[in-house]
Structure formats: C-alpha cells, structure tokens
Amino acid sequence: MPAPYSEDLRLKALAAVDRGDRKSHVCRTFGIGRSTLDDWLKRRQTSGTVAHTPHYRRGPQPKIADLEYFRDFAATHGHLTQEQMAQRWSQPISNRTIGKALKKIGFTRKKRPKAIENVTKPSKEPS
C-alpha cells in the first residue's frame, strides 16, 4: 500500500483551492487526482483537519486480541485439546483459531525442545 500524501502537500493544495484556483488546475499542478482533492475538502469540512487516518488496519480483526492473556490461558489449560480449549475460551471460537494463536505465541506440547540425535556405534567389523 502506498504511503499517504504529506500534510504539507494537502495544505498547499487546499490553500490553492481557497485562493480561487480551479480544482483541475490544482490537481495537475500538485500531481494528485480529482477525487483525492475532493476527499481532502470533504475531510476538512467534516473534521476540521486534513491529516491522514493513522493506524488504518486492513482485513479482519484478530479473534484473540490479547496475546498475553491467551499465553496465561494456554499455560493453565495446555493439557487440554484445542477443541476443549475453544470450549473454555470466553468467546465463541473455533479450535483452528486456538491452534493459530498457539502457534503465534510459540506454545508447544513437546516434552523436549529439540529431537534427540540418533547416535549409532561404529561397527568393529568391516562391511
């Protein structure tokens, strides 16, 4: 996603419109689209500012937003299956979502952190 236009450019373009310049001329001068200029004018009229919307997030919100709380929940209920954990969660949630969240926090049910190396003794007889 491209970066938003700077507030300085927005203010200069709106100042040119306020001076009486035609919108099409202002758009060509500053290299912006007509709909962009119209959006800035509308935003200034409604909110009083032309700053871009901060922290805009695309896509759906995560089902489990508080990972610290979920980390404590997983430590307490880690012996249960994902389906049982989903049933005990405070909101309706699928066991697949529980699995994704467990992976995100790095939770594992392994007893050892890494696999044991297979060490075989060298044979004394030549093969």
From TrEMBL:
Domain HTH psq-type: from-to ranges: 1-47
Protein name: Transposase
A Pfam entry, by short name: HTH_Tnp_IS630
Source organism: Rubidibacter lacunae KORDI 51-2
GO molecular function: DNA binding
Superkingdom per UniProt: Bacteria
InterPro entries cross-referenced by the UniProt entry: Homeodomain-like_sf, HTH_Psq, Transposase_14, WH-like_DNA-bd_sf
SUPFAM superfamilies with a match to the protein in the record: Homeodomain-like (SSF46689)
Bilayer-spanning residue ranges: none
